[in-house]
Amino acid sequence: LLDEAAAQAQRGEMATVLVLGATGATGSRVVAQLLERGERVRAVVRSKASVPEPVRANERFEAVEASVLDIPASDLAKHLDGVDRIVSCLGHNPTAKGIFGKPYYLCTEAIELVHKAILSTPADRKYKVVLMNTIGTPHPDGSDKTSAMQRAALKLLACCVPPVRDNNSALMYMHKQIGTKDPRIEWAVVRPDGLLEGDEVTEYEAMANPSTTLFNPGVVRRSNVAHLMAELLTNQATWDAWRFKFPVVLNKDQADKGKAKDGSAVLGCEIAPVLLPPTEA
Questions:
Q1: What tens digit of pLDDT does each residue of 117-151 get?
Q2: What phi and psi values does residue 280 have, to the nearest 5 degrees?
């Protein structure tokens, strides 16, 4: 597909990245890394006051005050003016209310809203969409190598824990409802392992399938997850490697616990990421 960002650059324009979940623990790091790369960022936030002052003061940052699910698709389409990339870092708060309270399908409804908004924009516009999901959501083609016990445990969690069900639903919406046939939309779904705090970007690895298990989990810094998503949104080589795919991301030392079957990886580091496209199994 046409690289719309490059096309806009040729016209002397700077494209904008729309960020959902921009004040969350990972989303805020995505915003920071995009701004560091010189990108324009438009963020949908409940309150501008929740955005750190240095970010609010950045001339390339714009805040739209709204609750995502309260925005009609027609209004969200207006906020897509000048946007060619969208990233959703929305998630459920790890509290009893966040896990078991409404909205039960926050991530799914948000990505469905984005899809409807895109479809109402002019047909010549093209978008890249990145969804932050979780390693607990299995690859839809069944290629994740998991034990029968783990598969049973994941099914039980999906039945009993609403956020797990939501993550499964959001990934399948990308895979099935959006799919790969609409020439206007390309996407990637990032599946991080257990999340750790930390702002420093360290070595991490992205692979087609998990190298850890539910019973022997790995970890990844939120900063590394944010770095991969920023790479997807700004580096065409990274995008080409993971377009329409579901990369698992975890810290490099955790990845060395065991490799995915195909051994593929995108290795990132703070100074100069080495990009290795995945090899088909």
A1: 999 999 999 999 999 998 888 888 888 877 777 77
A2: -65, 135
Q: Say how far apart CA 2 and CA 64 lie, in whole Å.
A: 28
Residue 24: how many other CB atoms lie within 10 Å:
19
Contact in structure between 136 and 154 (CB atoms under 8 Å): yes
Based on the number of CB atoms within 10 Å of its own CB, is 217 exposed (0-12), middle (13-18) or buried (19 or more)? middle
Q: Can you tell me the distance from the alpha carbon of 264 to that of 207, in angstroms, rounded to the nearest whole number? A: 6
Please state the length of the chain.
Answer: 281
Tally Cβ neighbours within 10 Å of residue 185: 22
Cβ-count burial 78-109 (b if 16+ within 10 Å, e if not): ebbeebbbbbbbbbbeeeeeeeeeebebbbbb
Which tokens go with 232?
Answer: 């997807």
